[in-house]
């Protein structure tokens, strides 16, 4: 059986491939692309935050509210950028 850590690491490769492909699409809204990249920032922040929660509080990240909320901020930011980017693209397309 594959551990959850191994599965998590393996899941990054398809996402990196996704980012590689969408970054080459000229019609891809830049703001939305930044949002998709910001998701990697979320992952990069969540991993050390989870380790810190485990070492300092002996709890999982989900049980340390201030730390969990701080990490989730980056996911929220990523989602906002994606939505605003596609919203701008739809508005631009309807005006043309």
From TrEMBL:
Matches recorded under Pfam families: DUF3593 (PF12159)
Keyword list, A-Z: Membrane, Transmembrane, Transmembrane helix
UniProt keyword Transmembrane helix, yes or no: yes
Transmembrane segments: 6-22, 34-53, 73-90
Record keyword Transcription regulation present: no
PANTHER family per the UniProt record, alphabetical: 1-ACYL-SN-GLYCEROL-3-PHOSPHATE ACYLTRANSFERASE
UniProt name for this protein: DUF3593 domain-containing protein
